[in-house]
Amino acid sequence: MMAKFPHLRQDFAASLVVFLVALPLCVGVAVASGVPAELGLVTGIVGGIVTGMMRGSSLQVSGPAAGLTVLVFEAVQEFGLPILGVLVLATGALQLLMGALKLGRWFRAISVSVVEGMLAGIGLVLIAGQLYAVADAKAPASGLAKIAGLPGALADAAGNTGAPASLGLGAGTIAVLVLWKRMPGKVRTVPGPLAAVGLATLVAVVFSLPVATVEVKGLLGSIQPPSLSAFGELGHVGVLATVVAFTLIASAESLFSAAAVDRLHDGPRTEYDKELMAQGAGNAVCGALGALPMTAVIVRSSANVQAGAKTKASRVMHGVWLLLFAALLPATLALIPIPALAGILVHAGFKLIPFRGIVSLWRGHRGEALILVATAVSIVAVNMFEGVLFGLALSVAKTAWEASHMKMEVIDKGAGPIQAYLSGNATFLRLPKILDSLEALPQDRPVELDLSGLHHLDHACRTALENWAERLPHFSTSLEAGGTPTAAGTEPVRVTTP
């Protein structure tokens, strides 16, 4: 057995660690998404067994992710839980198509600032929303309302008889997660999320605290395959926009996670198109079962690598352990306090915000830092889909502006021709600046226009320069590439073309 599976011992040990990390996160993401807790376990099971067995990235682990919580919650509130399966199934089909068309590698071309801004925006909305759960209060619908209403919600909690216990459990859960890294090595063999939820559950049971706990429906009772009539909703613009948002965010997060996991180990590198198809297959199965969408999750993936996993067997086994737990111990979920799960997601939300990344970007690339912040703010102020589109548009505009960077240097020695040197990329975006500078030159002197320093001269600029030269008194020229300008007057405009 060991000869056939030489890494079985390492993979078995790693699978237990990943299972213990994934269990509270699967439940917490489901509750925060407004769906039965068991559906989070279903997505974790499918992510482990179905996606885990496929090729792509050998060591990263998939399941329900905090990064999609806000969008799933909004979708369930707007379209209803029966439509969730349709959304996730369509997302999986779209990912399978993109993988088959070998578009996986193109997700690496998405600006890192947009992705980090997206995650920061999600993190802010997630933190704000889950703080209401910690305070035993109902969260408003929009991101801005969540943030604006927090002081009032916390003030109201002070006068609520059940709120102090809820606040205490939530704050204690966050404190355990933050301080867990400072615990002795033997203690840290238990994953922080499991320890935090376990301690909170123990305190709530022992002291009979009046806090909300997870509602249990049973695994089979929670699975709701989408009906045929539900697929008719795909004709609505809002539903299609949500599918596109699911696909974009889930695919980008999974493939960026794969790149990060590759840096953690020396094993086989990720095959991006195959990984995208593996994610698509997993989401298609999740959709067919009416469960949450999945992505590759960096928390579970890094735990898998750090626990010594060598092959994909570890993530498959973690899915088996989740299945056994859901089948044999479902009543255990009913003991878990909601504030403890909310505390885990508040901590996860903070980890989504790249505080150090923003500072380093501001020092070296302020434009990228502004895109990151603008993307995050627009997600909080408007919604997920439009916020990401706004960030992508800003990134494209910035790239176009930088690609059209051009410098003009004018040398006037007082006598003889005026020399004008253009360098960089002369595109229509810089045309007003070029023409303003040229038209400001003296009209009664010959001009030597040197374009040899340009990397690119587009048709609009070439035509505009020809028209400018023709309008000069007594001068005309041809800007044919490589040609020699001809004069139709006393002195020509001398042009050196790129």
Automatic annotation (TrEMBL):
<keyword id="KW-0812">Transmembrane</keyword>
<feature type="transmembrane region" description="Helical">
    <location>
        <begin position="320"/>
        <end position="350"/>
    </location>
</feature>
<feature type="transmembrane region" description="Helical">
    <location>
        <begin position="109"/>
        <end position="133"/>
    </location>
</feature>
<keyword id="KW-0472">Membrane</keyword>
<feature type="transmembrane region" description="Helical">
    <location>
        <begin position="161"/>
        <end position="180"/>
    </location>
</feature>
<feature type="transmembrane region" description="Helical">
    <location>
        <begin position="234"/>
        <end position="256"/>
    </location>
</feature>
<feature type="transmembrane region" description="Helical">
    <location>
        <begin position="192"/>
        <end position="214"/>
    </location>
</feature>
<dbReference type="GO" id="GO:0055085">
    <property type="term" value="P:transmembrane transport"/>
</dbReference>
<dbReference type="Pfam" id="PF00916">
    <property type="entry name" value="Sulfate_transp"/>
</dbReference>
<protein>
    <submittedName>
        <fullName>Sulfate transporter</fullName>
    </submittedName>
</protein>
<dbReference type="InterPro" id="IPR011547">
    <property type="entry name" value="SLC26A/SulP_dom"/>
</dbReference>
<dbReference type="InterPro" id="IPR001902">
    <property type="entry name" value="SLC26A/SulP_fam"/>
</dbReference>
<keyword id="KW-1133">Transmembrane helix</keyword>
<feature type="transmembrane region" description="Helical">
    <location>
        <begin position="370"/>
        <end position="397"/>
    </location>
</feature>
<feature type="transmembrane region" description="Helical">
    <location>
        <begin position="79"/>
        <end position="97"/>
    </location>
</feature>
<dbReference type="GO" id="GO:0016020">
    <property type="term" value="C:membrane"/>
</dbReference>
<feature type="region of interest" description="Disordered">
    <location>
        <begin position="479"/>
        <end position="498"/>
    </location>
</feature>
<feature type="domain" description="SLC26A/SulP transporter">
    <location>
        <begin position="8"/>
        <end position="375"/>
    </location>
</feature>
